[in-house]
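Supplementary Text 2. Reproducibility record for the structural model of the 127-residue chain.

All settings were left at their defaults, and a single model was retained for analysis rather than an ensemble. We include the record here because the model underlies the residue-level annotations in Supplementary Table 4.
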Amino acid sequence: MYKPVAAGLLTARAMAAKASYPHEDDYTSLTDLNIEIDEENGTFFMCFWLYILGSFTTPPVTIIQQLHTDIEGNTPFLLLNKEKKLMLFPFKFLLEESCQHGTYSEVPCACTEIEYPFNKWVHVGCE
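Retained model, structure tokens:
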């Protein structure tokens, strides 16, 4: 059964509007990112470089959110938690867990062991 899942940036657009960095015309903002995934296949691969300005970001903040046509509301796919660690959530969380948990700390996910280094490029990838 095909169920499209979309991802988009939830962080403040004001941050992107105020920020300037070298060669900014060479980069693309995540604000308009939209990916549809066919769940029949069962696998996907995604990687990108991420740069978060520390002066405009107060964790926790959702970096990429999940949307689903059959479920109301949004759920994080990639989150920077209050300890400044990246958390990557599975798509199953959106379908099975989103209405059952009040906090993301109870949901199984992949989490970095180190704090996210603001104002530096970080390569993020998942399969």
